[in-house]
Every structure is written in structure tokens, then in C-alpha cells.
Structure prediction request, 449 residues.
Amino acid sequence: MSLSYSTNTVTLFLKPNPASGVPIYLQLKEQVRHACETGALRPGDSLPGIRALAESMVINPNTVARVYRELEQEGLLELRHGVGAFVAQRGTTRWTAARTGQMKAAQKAARTFVGELRRRGIESDEIRRLVEAELATSDGKVPLVG
Amino acid sequence: METSVKQAYAIETEALTKYYGDFEAVRGLTMLVPKGSITGFLGQNGAGKSSTIRMLLGMSRPTRGSGRVLDFDIANEKQSIEMRKRVAYVGEDKRLYDYMTVGQMIDFTKAFYPGWRDDVEKKLLEEFRLPLDRLTKKLSKGMRTQTALLLAFARGAELLILDEPTEGLDPVMAEKLLELVVGAAADGASIFFSSHQIAEVEQIADRILLIDRGQLLLDTTLDSISTDFRRIRGVYDTAPVMSALALDGVKRVAVDGRTVSVMVSHNSVTIAERMRAQSATAVEVSPMTLKEIVLESLKRDQS
Prediction:
């Protein structure tokens, strides 16, 4: 058997995990953001159509539509009538650069925090439980997955 | 969507009831399935899912109560026929006419449905590589299923009612079926499907309805399950006052020695605070999966 390639943007995203406690729409939203932050998607790049993405991830098309709509409101995406969704140009949003810096700093903070707990002998699944419990109690909002 | 937005629901039932002799299979079921949604219909075997679906499809008459499918009255014979032109049904038994070939079966079915999707037919024929001139009775089990799916999904139905659609399918076909469901939803169809596979319900549904002993037990969205449903566990120093936990959002309370475990559908922050105020130490709030919520909801009360 030969190795098969796919150059479709659809393969950019992983299938969401419904049992993670994070709504599928937030998981997908975070994946789109992440793809923009890492440069996997660049300004002007087109995103898969709602139907194509829903079929390839086997998730509800309403979920995809909602993610695209919300990311448009946040300025990350541009929806062009009849054409589809695109990553917004840098000129129209300062989102990407600013957010990339923020996320890098947050990642560093998370590493320090996890390292500290490990030194105190807390196991990985205990840390996960603590963080989840904290997020669940603090404001009713849920964690975003990266 | 081509259909008008004159009513927001694909399925509406009001106190729907079905007796088989003395046995009450469906007991006053009132439920709404919004148009354009993918709604998972959950419940144990014998909970009344198939009885409900049979009534919705006009295959059996309600003993009491009423129902509308795509705004057609399910108890009215004429309206029921109109409704069935717009609804596709896939059950566990994939019924085909034995004396027809696959090709004849497709042409025959196509004749009844003006909304027939040639593109879907073509795509699925290529994908499944079905032998068009083979008699359907000579098909393998897998090919029978594929033929039935092609006939259901190419009809261009406004509503798909699926009863345990992935039962008996191999993992590849099961995933293919979900993909077809998602594709139909992208075309604007409403989907109502019963399933025991909680993972697949979580994957594609936006709403769930859980029934037990013929009655509605839970009606919620998958988003709400992720963001609002919580399990709160507290360890008490002194015996807790149970009545103080009768708060908005509390669904179930279980006591095991000094540990109290509460399932809440919303309002978790207030409820956790109340438990702390009641001398509970180590109050822990954690998210719940759909599976946990279903199992917890179906636990019989010990009274």
C-alpha cells in the first residue's frame, strides 16, 4: 500500500473529543485559533466549507456555522458572501500578533505552574482534576483546549 | 432551507400515549424537536422509543394525545401520507423488495420523490460500488444496508427519522452513516435519531431527549451539558440537612456516609456555595459526560 497524501485544509483539524467536558464548538473554535497562531492558516487563506468540515469531522454543521460566525465577530475570520470563510488580513485585525504573544506567555505560565505542582508530588490526573474543578467553580465557564 | 419557517418544530407531541392492551408503552409524552436540529432520542430498551417513532410515522395510532410531524397531524390518514413524502425513515431492519435488482429498486423509489437527489445517488453508488443488476435478496448484509441508506438519503427528505441506525453496522459503515446524517443536516434537513451509542450522539447531536418508561426525563442541549451540568461532591463533618439542598438546578442527591454527591443541571456555583455554608469541606465540582448524566438520570429511586 502506498502512503496517501491529502492537501485538503480539512485535515488541519482533529476530530473533537465529545467526552472532554468542553463543548465541541469551543474545541473547534480553539483549533481554528490555534491554526492561525501557529501559522498553519495565514491571512487570506480560505477555510473549508461548512458542509465539508462538518462531514470530515463528523460533527453537527450548525456547530461549524456557529464557530465561523463567532470568529468573524471576533475579527479572526472574514465571511464573504457566497464564497466562504477566510482568515482576515492582518491590516483588518491586530488579533493574530497580539494573541500569539499572549498565548506564548500563558503557555510559559502554565508550564511553571504544572512544574511547581509536580515538584510537590501531585500526579498528572490530579492536576487535571484540580484545574477542571477550579474552572468549573470559578465562573461557570469551561476550559478551552489547545 | 426551502421550506417556509411558518413553524419552528419538525416534531411536536402533546401528551402522546400508547397502550398495548394493559401495557402503557408511551405515557403522556410531550416533546419538541426544533427544525434544523440533530436530536438524539435516548432511553433504555422498552422505554418507548420505537413505539413513539411508529406513531410519528403513522405506523400505529396514538391511544391518546396528539402529534404533528412537519406540521402534519399524525392521526390524520391523508395528512400522514403527505408527511411521509417528506420524511425518510431508517430502522434496524433494512426492508427492500426482494424481486427487484438494486437498480430497479433505486428507479422505483425515485419515482415517488420529486426531491430526489441525483448527486447523492451518484456519490453513494460510487462509494459503495453496489452491483446495480443484482437482485436485492442476493445482496450481502453490508450491501443491503448500503442500498437502504442510499434510498433514504437520496430522497431529499426534510426530516430523517432514524431508529438505531448504526445497530449492527461495522465501525466504518457506522461512521459513514453519521457522515451522511451530517451532510443531510448541512442541506437543511432535521434529524431525529434513537441510539444506544452515547458517543455518537455526543458527536453529532445538538439536542437530546431522554425518555424512561414512556415519559420524558431530560430535554437539553449538548452545549448545556458541557457548560451547565455538574457533579458536586462534598464531605460533611456533621450530618447534612438534606432539605437545604432542594435548590433550583439540583437533579439528584446521593448520600454515601459523610459524602454527598449532587447532580445539577445548572446553578452549580450557588449550589456549591450552599454546600460549603452547610459545613461541607472539600467541595469538588466536576463536569459530567452525557453518559454519566444518562446513567445517573436512569437510576431508580430507592423508595
Notes: Chain B has two domains: 9-223, 230-287. Confidence is low (pLDDT under 50) at residues 1-5 of chain B. Chain B touches chain A through 34 residues (CB under 8 Å).
